[in-house]
Amino acid sequence: MICLIRNLTSISPPINGFDKLPLPNETTPGADLARIKWYRNKLAHHDSNTFKTADFNAAWINLTDAVGRLGGLQMNHECQELKVKILDQSNQEVMLEIKQSQEEMKELKQTMDTQNLKVRKSLEKLKDSVSCLQAEQSNLTDISKETIPWNIRGILYLIL
């Protein structure tokens, strides 16, 4: 969405661009969109299921302020309600699905890592085989120079 907004509208980018967290005193629409994008990416690519309270509170304040500036008082009010909202059964189910998806992604990554390791081992064996074949060819070439007459050696050289 940010890509579309920054390429199809006249919104000015923040000082450091759309891919970095804007400075706290930057409150333009472009800076607020970049702020939302930055926190979204930080949370979406976070390694663990935990988040320090201080970091969460700072992120929440920054995001709530940005959403409030972009969406007005109604959106700001909804953000305030969401912070203390109790998860009902449907939200818990969504959270469980997210957790299950994360586990599936971890398993898939482990499978890919295992396959990658097998491929690397096969590649190493293949490199070793190539080295052995090259050494044997070199030995055969040396032997052929010693025992094969020069005119037949020339013919073989052209063939090989």
Automatic annotation (TrEMBL):
<dbReference type="InterPro" id="IPR041249">
    <property type="entry name" value="HEPN_DZIP3"/>
</dbReference>
<feature type="coiled-coil region">
    <location>
        <begin position="84"/>
        <end position="125"/>
    </location>
</feature>
<protein>
    <recommendedName>
        <fullName>DZIP3-like HEPN domain-containing protein</fullName>
    </recommendedName>
</protein>
<keyword id="KW-0175">Coiled coil</keyword>
<feature type="domain" description="DZIP3-like HEPN">
    <location>
        <begin position="2"/>
        <end position="93"/>
    </location>
</feature>
<dbReference type="Pfam" id="PF18738">
    <property type="entry name" value="HEPN_DZIP3"/>
</dbReference>
